[in-house]
Amino acid sequence: MLNNIGLPGLLLITVVVLVLFGRGKISSLMGEIGKGITSFKKGVKEGNSEIEAAAADDAVDVTPASEPEKDKA
Questions:
Q1: The pTM is what?
Q2: Which DSSP helix (H) or strand (E) runs through 39?
């Protein structure tokens, strides 16, 4: 069904959306989507840096020293 839309159908859908919502509403919506994408990318970058920091911390040997065995008498 969606394979047969073509360019005229897309133009008609665009015009209908513009008439229903208006140019201002659509531009503000696109701005909010842009802000969301930017914050998502920032969060992914911060998450990756936290993972790398945790991996660097794990490289240090923090195993506790073994306790000497007690004689069983």
A1: 0.51
A2: helix 23-58
Question: CA distances (Å), 33 to each of 3, 9, 18, 27, 29, in order?
Answer: 27, 25, 17, 10, 6
CA distances from 65 to 15, 44, 68, 70 (A): 73, 37, 9, 15
4-50 pLDDT tens trace: 888 899 999 989 988 888 888 888 989 999 999 999 999 999 988 88
Please state, in angstroms and rounded to a whole number, the distance separating the CA atoms of residues 30 and 45: 23
Q: What angle do CA 44, 49, 53 make, to 5 degrees?
A: 150
